[in-house]
TrEMBL record, chains A, B:
Residues binding Fe cation, per UniProt: H134
CDD domains named in the record: Fur_like
Organism in which the protein naturally occurs: Chthoniobacter flavus Ellin428
Protein's name according to its UniProt entry: Ferric uptake regulator, Fur family
First and last residue of the signal peptide: none
Residues binding Zn(2+): C102, C105, C142, C145
DNA sequence: AGTTTATTTAGAATAATTCTTGATAAGCTT
DNA sequence: AAGCTTATCAAGAATTATTCTAAATAAACT
């Protein structure tokens, strides 16, 4: 028994529907890239996605991974996430959320929007602007690194951060 | 009569103070770069700063402009602003604020934080994270472009956007 | 089966930024 | 002032993430 088999019905649109809606095809490569993203709740770079997909599809090229990520992003079924000048990361969470970039372990975690809140609640946007998109990123320490830091730092046991700190 | 002549006193710290505080010097190049930013309330790229400074200091190199912008940023007297994969822009406004990137005219405008508001008001940050920085960017149409768009679009007079739209 | 169109791929190209290296200049020390 | 040390600058090379090009492949359509 297969669920969500959007042949004629109109349940919530699947990734395939979004792709088809643009006259594009859900190819093996695109699905593999999408699955690599859905598989873990992290935010891999294009190269990391490439490495993951390659284990299942050894002949895929990096250019194709870039192409697929762009296509999936354009179709609105994944999101590209940028922070400073670092390589783009990709995220399958379509809910409105911000990102915390941990400078301790290099991880990126989703920060949900509180219910019934809007960015306009805290930002003084002129009323006549039209906003299409907004992106929010925090930099700091994730819960794990923050507590480790609070406990370990007193005896001055500093662990090397994963991020470049000149 | 010169104002803010921080020789021995302790008025609010000048840009020079921040530089000196790091054992660095406020050179002609650094001041020229800083002045180029302060001169206009926009958000130029490194190359745009380079072009502005070059009119007053024809021998300055682009590498030096990059160096100066990095130094000024590290000293906390200007801010680097990033949006998607576009070239970094620089901003002399040290108040906490977001940015609206207008896809009509390519301008970047400051969006102030409403008084007595904090990002935590709308974002559900775990309590044990430690946040060092946060960056917020909106994409859309600035007031000028939004009103022009609302008025002109009906008779389908679309003007070419300054941003690449494939 | 033949035609059109989308997709993939490898490699070249691009563009922003950073790095390297040898001047040049500034600040101290004697 | 002369010498020493360190910071800064400048030109060009190098890096790196990403995009582009062109040819091969595959799917959809007639
Ligand atoms: Mn996310
Ligand atoms: Mn600004
Ligand atoms: Zn962490
Ligand atoms: Zn505008």
């Amino acid at each position: 028994m297969k669920l969500r088999d959007n042949h004629s019905g109109d349940a919530s649109p699947t990734p395939d529907d979004h792709i088809h809606g643009r006259g594009l095809r859900m190819t093996d490569q695109r699905r593999a890239v999408y699955d690599a993203l859905m598989g873990q709740r992290d935010h891999p770079t294009a190269v990391e996605v490439f490495m993951r997909v390659k284990t299942k599809m050894p002949n895929i090229s990096l250019a194709t991974v870039y192409n697929c990520l762009e296509t999936l992003t354009d179709c609105g079924i994944i999101k590209a996430v940028n922070h400073d000048r670092e390589p783009s990361r990709y995220c399958p969470n379509l809910a409105e959320h911000a990102h915390l970039f941990c400078q301790g372990c290099g991880s990126v975690m989703d920060i949900p929007l509180r219910s019934n809140r809007r960015p306009q609640d805290i930002w003084d946007l002129p009323e006549d602007v039209s906003v299409v998109q907004h992106e929010v990123s925090f930099r700091g320490l994730c819960p794990k690194c923050a507590t480790a830091d609070a406990a370990d730092t007193p005896p001055d046991t500093q662990k090397a951060p994963r991020t470049r700190s000149k």
